[in-house]
Amino acid sequence: MGRILKHVGIIMDGNGRWAQMRGLPRHEGHKRGVEKVKEIIGAALRLKIDVVTFYAFSIENWQRPKKEVDIIMQLLQNHLKKETNNFISQGIRFKMIGNRNLIPDNILSVIEEAEKATADCKELITQFAISYSGRDEIIRAVKKAIQKNIDSENFDENMMNSFLDTAEIPEPDLIIRTSGEQRLSNFLIWQSAYSEFYFTQTLWPDFTDDEFTEAILDFQKRQRRFGKVSEFARA
């Protein structure tokens, strides 16, 4: 299919509901969700996508019960320790976006080790939004600009982009959200100004390689005008 698009963002929603529907504790849904991430990364490699960003844990998620948060952090830590060598062998670069100041040191050290180990990988960039909030990212970016004493007359969109966590990463062409919800929930709110959206009722643990491909094919049918008049309309 070739390089059909550069960047897909995924809001992975529905782990808790998936577990509750089966009479299981919520953490079982999170475990299944981690396994699904690996499957979709494989699909992204097959489809030759450049970047996939997974919304793994929002800043607001820190307000969940401590036991659930601890389980999610442990799952993340275990997954990175287990998968880093696989990332390297497949040419997958791991990158975190989000507020690192809120992450426990033991978890952050594993994240940064994975980033360092995979820094030279070129086949696919997998960004994990952890302790992430789009508004928080924008505030942190503005603070960086202020600290750099940037002249307001020279401050434009390109400069703003350079201060974001996603600097040098293309804006998402497509954002997928599972579980039936139809909102961004503070995910890449600056970067998604012209993104296309794909909403599905499927809960994240049930989201498949086939449905991911279906979302990409649906994207291919759309006409992206970026505020301009389409070629068809001008004709």
Descriptive overview:
The protein has helices at residues 15-21, 26-46, 66-90, 105-117, 134-147, 157-163, 209-220, 231-234; strands at 7-11, 51-58, 92-97, 124-132, 174-177, 196-199. It is of the alpha/beta class. The mean pLDDT is 93. A six-stranded parallel sheet has the order 3-4-2-1-5-6, with helices on both faces. The protein has one domain (7-134, 171-220): Decaprenyl diphosphate synthase-like (Undecaprenyl pyrophosphate synthetase, 3-Layer(aba) Sandwich), CATH 3.40.1180.
Please give a quick description of this structure.
The chain is α/β, with parallel strands linked by helices. Helix content is 44%, strand content 15%. A 6-stranded parallel sheet has the order 3-4-2-1-5-6, sandwiched between helices.
